[in-house]
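Q: What structure does this chain adopt?
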Amino acid sequence: MRILVVAAPLVGHLLPMLPAAHALAELGHEVVIASGGDAVGRDLGGLPAVDVAQDVSLRRCAARTMLAHPGLARRELAGTAGTDVVGLLFGAVNEGLADPVVAVARAFAPEVVVHEPLAPAGALAAARLGVPAVLQENSLFDGPSLVAAVVRSPLFRRALRRHGLLDELPPPADILTIAPPSVVGVRGGRPMRAVPDDGAGLPDWLTEPTARPRILVSRSTVAGPGGGDPMVAVVAAAPDVDAEIVLVRPTDRLTRKALPPNVRTVGWVPLSAALPHAAAVVHHGGAGTVLTALATGTPQLLVPGPGDRRFNADLVVRRGAGLSVAARSITAATLTRLVTDGSLHEAAREVRTEIAAMPDPASVLDQARWAP
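A:
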């Protein structure tokens, strides 16, 4: 079976879809990925990819959305806009993706299109070809609500009408949900374990046991407002923390300064491979990092902020698997609690066990009957 996998042109949107895409390929299906930007520039494990976002500027779409809706923009920066802004923003993005995705679909002639919630251009292409569309969630947000928010946006409705659809998409043939129920609640669709892509390339020192707990500190792959980089505050607090602190992809500005003796740096590493060797992780609150930390049973400190970051942080704190602290408020006491609070570690381990018990992608997808 030929299967087209469609993701928004962002690394964090495509990576959670790769385990399922690889499982489909291993089951004998011909898989092609349609995405763009940095997402298709990464090593995709041999899967072919087509850049469908060459004429789409996420930054320009975001700027236009924020300028056109200043009230919503303020709520979005505070992380309280729900799906209102994300619907408008990705409505603009998918309006630009619609024609290229349809063109790729026509050329590839897939029998099924798998898409993430913020890439309903994939569902549009499936409708044009008359083939099933499968919605695969890739965050802690409810997937159908995100699709609905994008479909409501005027720009995406323009794309729907341009392609002969009347302001709506057919319902998905299947919904794959990857978030653990104890964190997000019970959802419809079929649960599927978010199997991290372990990858390779960890330096030896990052896998070696340490006398003190190791804390990884990461930041967003997407530049933007909202104070999402916790590294400056962590470095300032580090001398008073009895831990080895590892900055993942720190900015050049930060590394030009002398760092405390217990702070080390590393380039891009797969967090799914690195986190099992860490006692905790501090990060910007993005869904991919949250899910990876949950899957590896790693207590996490999230910085709440724009988009889904406050939503994600609230869910993790409610589950007891982490802390939520503004970047400027991170202190040595905060970091010490992160690695010494037994309740955080216990809750994180419970969620890890829960995720491990979810069906793996191969078994879920092998049971799928999507062929027309």
